[in-house]
Every structure is written in C-alpha cells, then in structure tokens.
C-alpha cells in the first residue's frame, strides 16, 4: 500500500516532518548516558470516508490530527533508552496504527549528529494494518 493520497481508494496522506527531539538512542555508552538530537518523520495513509466525491465536515474530530501524531512520537521517543533506531521507529508506527483510520504508518528516525562527515543516518520502517 502506498503512502499517497488516493481518492479512488478513499485515502488521504497525513504527515509530520522534521520533528526534532532529544532522546536516549543508541548502542554506545555515551548514547545511553546523554540524550542526542533525533529527527522523526511520520507519513500515514488514512481512510477518507468522504473521498472521492464529497467534502467532509470541517471538524477536527473527523481527521487524524497531526498534533496528536507528533505528541505520540514525542512521548515514545522520551520514554527511555532505546538501543536501535529501528525499534524506536517500529514503536511509533505501531502506536499510530492504534487509530483505526490509519492503514499504513511509515516512520523515519534520523540521528543527524552521529557521523561528522554526513548530514544524517537513520532508518525508515513501515507498518500496515491488515
């Protein structure tokens, strides 16, 4: 399943990009002792019951709120030390799938300050509701 809006399939795309948090993430001793900058990206494929022809009510309760998405990611990133970026991304994706409207969750976790000669390192995971 694609992370893209698709009116014919009744899908919308909700995203949060560049969410920057301080997190205890990594396998090295200094990463376990000192939080580091972590950048999280979330892309969701969400059911849109009003697509393809109608406009839904202009009410926050009918949509997946990107503020809530960011809060969930922040809470999970701050919950304690995680060894692998993959694990952090998986935890966020799985939590976002708790909303029945979310069909696909793609989450990126980047560590921009790990290697001096690169912009960022990280991982992208995708989890799908079946």
From TrEMBL:
GO cellular component term of the entry, any? cytoplasm
Catalysed reactions listed for this entry: 7,8-dihydroneopterin = 6-hydroxymethyl-7,8-dihydropterin + glycolaldehyde
Q: Where is the Dihydroneopterin aldolase/epimerase domain?
A: 14-127
Could you say which protein family the record assigns here? Belongs to the DHNA family.
| Enzyme Commission no | 4.1.2.25
- Pfam families the UniProt entry points to: FolB
Which GO terms fall under biological process for this protein?
folic acid biosynthetic process
Q: Its annotated pathway? A: Cofactor biosynthesis; tetrahydrofolate biosynthesis; 2-amino-4-hydroxy-6-hydroxymethyl-7,8-dihydropteridine diphosphate from 7,8-dihydroneopterin triphosphate: step 3/4
Keyword Lyase tagged? yes
Quote the SUPFAM superfamilies the UniProt record gives. Answer: Tetrahydrobiopterin biosynthesis enzymes-like
- PANTHER family to which the protein is assigned, alphabetical: DIHYDRONEOPTERIN ALDOLASE 1-RELATED
| Matches recorded under NCBIfam families | folB_dom (TIGR00526)
Which Gene Ontology MF annotations are present? dihydroneopterin aldolase activity
Keywords per UniProt: Folate biosynthesis, Lyase
Q: Which InterPro entries match?
A: Dihydroneopterin_aldolase (IPR006156), FolB_dom (IPR006157), GTP-CH-I_C/QueF (IPR043133)
The name this protein carries in UniProt is dihydroneopterin aldolase
